[in-house]
Design a protein that fits this description.
This protein has 190 residues and is of the alpha+beta class. The protein has 2 domains: 92 residues, no CATH class; 65 residues, Beta Barrel (OB fold (Dihydrolipoamide Acetyltransferase, E2P)), CATH 2.40.50.140. It has 5 helices and 5 strands. The chain has a 5-stranded mixed barrel. A hairpin with a 6-residue loop joins strand 1 and strand 2. It is rod-shaped.
Length: 190
């Protein structure tokens, strides 16, 4: 038992132990705020403001501590230890998010997959050229028309077209379907 007490007494007298027992308040506050900012960056997606600020605060806390003592070699060791601990924290949290219970929470479970029949953005509407449809809404000049039982967003080439009128598709440009009224005379309404 005496050997154990002697060991702890020797540890308490060492310069490493004095780092944590004789610290001023400012370096501790900077270091803790830095850790908190880095943790916030893990949970709030953004531009890295909290992460970068957290790293800066951690380094500032360590630097302020060692500027007070003037021990630069210990400063380098502590910065290295801080970065290793920061890396370890990010690794553990990211693993917990991916595989653990934390990853199953609503904030981290984003299902970006969409059923293929629901993705209208990938369709080619070239097959509509020359087909006739009926407007479902007033085209001012944009609206909806039904072609072959399917409602599609369309654009009137010129003017407005009333709801329920027959239209013909004259061209497509990607997702843009351009229509004109089927009548021989061109109606324009405002």
């Amino acid at each position: 038992m005496a050997h154990l007490l002697a060991f702890f007494q020797g540890f308490a007298d060492s310069s490493f132990a004095r780092l944590f027992t004789e610290m001023q308040v400012l370096p501790i506050i900077l270091f803790v705020l830095g850790i908190i900012f880095c943790a916030v960056e893990m949970f709030i997606p953004g531009f890295g403001f909290f992460g970068i600020s957290g790293v800066i605060l951690i380094v500032a806390g360590i630097v302020v501590r060692f500027i007070q003592d003037g021990d630069l070699l210990m400063l380098l060791y502590m910065i290295l230890i801080a970065f290793l601990l920061l890396f370890l924290m990010f690794f553990v949290l990211s693993r917990a998010i991916r595989k653990g219970r934390l990853g199953k929470t609503a904030i981290f479970s984003v299902d970006s997959s969409v059923a293929e029949d629901k993705t209208e953005g990938t369709r080619d509407f070239a097959f509509l050229v020359g087909q006739t449809g009926v407007t479902e809404t007033i085209l001012r000049p944009v609206g909806k028309a039904t072609f072959g039982g399917e409602v599609i967003d369309v654009v009137a080439r010129e003017g407005f077209i009333d709801k329920g009128e027959k239209v013909t598709c004259i061209s497509t440009e990607g997702q843009r379907v351009v229509v004109v009224p089927c009548q021989t005379k061109n109606k324009q309404r405002r």
